[in-house]
Design brief:
Oligomer: single chain
Number of domains: 1
CATH architecture: 2-Layer Sandwich
Length: 97
């Protein structure tokens, strides 16, 4: 499983639909695509939501991002994430010449 950070921005219509039911709809959409939700945060400022999810692939993350925009009205900027300890090892491992 790969980890993705999704930065969400509400459309005007999406603002009117904020509810626990819609939050569950998002979690179900992730699960239907073989993933799980690690964390969800509402934030203030230019970004409205920070979502951390596990999904099988980049292609699956792209599909979920588009489905969320179409069905829920939240635009997601989806970023693959690597744990820093793993990133450190990746950057310090022997590289082929």
């Amino acid at each position: 499983m790969a980890v993705f950070v999704m930065l969400g921005t509400y459309s005007r219509e999406a603002l009117n639909g904020i509810s626990p039911k819609r939050t569950e709809e998002f979690a179900q959409l992730v699960a239907q695509n073989g993933g799980s939700v690690r964390a969800m945060f509402a934030t203030l400022g230019e970004i409205d939501l920070v979502l951390v999810v596990d999904l099988p692939s980049v292609e699956t993350a792209a599909r979920v991002s588009i489905e969320v925009a179409q069905k829920i009205g939240i635009r997601l900027n989806t970023l693959p994430a690597i744990a820093v300890k793993d990133f450190d090892l990746l950057m310090t491992s022997e590289k082929p010449s």
